[in-house]
Amino acid sequence: MSTRNWTDKTIEEIVGTLLRVGVSLSAFVVAIGAAIYLARHGREPANYRVFHGEPSDLRSLSGIVRDAFRLRGRGIIQLGLLLLIATPVARVAFSIWGFAEEHDRLYMIFTGIVLIVLLYSLLGSGSAF
Amino acid sequence: MNILEFTILVAAGSFLAGLLGSLTGLGGGVVLVPLLSLFFKVDIRYAIGASLVSVIATSSGAASAYVREGFSNIRIGMFLEIATTVGALVGAFLAAFISTKALATIFGVMLLYSAYLSRKPRPRAQRNLPPDPLATRLRMNGDFPSEEGGMRHYNVQRVPLGFSLMFGAGALSGLLGIGSGAVKVLAMDQAMKIPFKVSTTTSNFMIGVTAAASAGVYLSRGYVDPGLAMPVMLGVLAGSMLGARILVKAETKALRLVFSIVIGVLGLQMLYKGLTGGI
User: Which pLDDT tens digit goes with each residue over B221-241?
Assistant: First the structure.
């Protein structure tokens, strides 16, 4: 019992670090994109009343990466948001390994199901990736 | 209003939403969409997209602080995430077929119900419940640091009911772009008899995974605008990180009262706008 508690605590600490690093990294990337975006477009009028959807290059991974490498502010922000979405997915993927370390087959299966649903929504549901 | 002013105001509003959402365990997303659509006149679909990515930040930012405190239970969280992620996918697909008026109406009803739930006196937490066979088999029972000092043990109850409620929480999350912390806390605290602080922190932990399940769908649909999502995400993140630091010591009762009034008023406004077509 004491061994399991120790391992649970270890997993929790690593998960905490993973989440912190993922969120900090994405916030950092979003902030860089924000600086470029605001420097270039800060004085233009803001208008979000009318919905027109995002252009296709801000909807897909390849388009976002292309825009980000061209140092477009909106592309860099979107890349940061993708990192943010990837953070909980990475957390779930790591948890499978954590439960494997504990020889907890039942929770490896549960975690695997959650990971499959997440990957399906990211890869299978649209053109995001 | 130019983009710079708009960004600063949205970031400030999102900071407050993140702070209150994290302190009460109800999530920042619940007030973000009304804030953006009622006060900043943002189209509700952009508001939902921005809210959805920011609840991932709220959840992950706060959860990274909570896991070290020993409140959240990763087994309960992971098992129930099966229900919330499947629900979130269903909700995100449904959102494409629903008009903005209907979305606002559903949002209003959900806000009013959240306000009612947080006002309803919580029955005195039952302690020392007998172990439930299913929960024991799923190894969900746990310990957490109690107010009196030392660790307190709890036995999880009614797993199937909690699991079903979590599917509903996931569907609401995918449909409205919120973390649906209110329903998650209801499922754990009331249905499964999990201690309140364990419920709120585990809920925060689950919200990111639930929101990630529908975020991909929203992004590919073009509902996530970087110019809007940026101040929302950064503001909410800063607010929720601060809230997570305070939570461990704070008395949540008074805060829940204030926040429930805010939620109720926003709910009435969303319902009104939804029904009269002003959105």
Answer: 888 999 999 999 999 989 888
Residue with the bigger pLDDT between B246 and B19: it is B19
Reported as a single tens digit per residue, the pLDDT across B199-208 is 888 888 898 8
ipTM, two decimals: 0.87
Distance between CA atoms of B59 and B236, rounded to whole angstroms?
10
Chain B residues inside the 8 Å CB shell of A103:
none
**pTM to 2 decimals?**
0.88
Q: What is the DSSP letter of B151?
A: E
Structural domain boundaries, residue B60? 3-276
Q: Do B78 and A50 touch (CB under 8 A)?
A: no
Number of domains in chain B: 1
For chain A, positions 102-121, list CB contacts with chain B under 8 A. Answer: 104, 106-107, 110-111, 113-114, 117-118, 120-121
What is the number of alpha carbons within 13 Å of residue B87 lying toward its C-beta?
A: 28
How close B190 comes to chain A (CA, Å)?
24
For CA atoms B187, B209, A125, B270, give the dihedral sign: positive
Nearest CA in chain B to A120: B213
For chain A, the domains span: 2-124
Q: Is B233 helix (H, G, I), strand (E, B) or coil?
A: helix
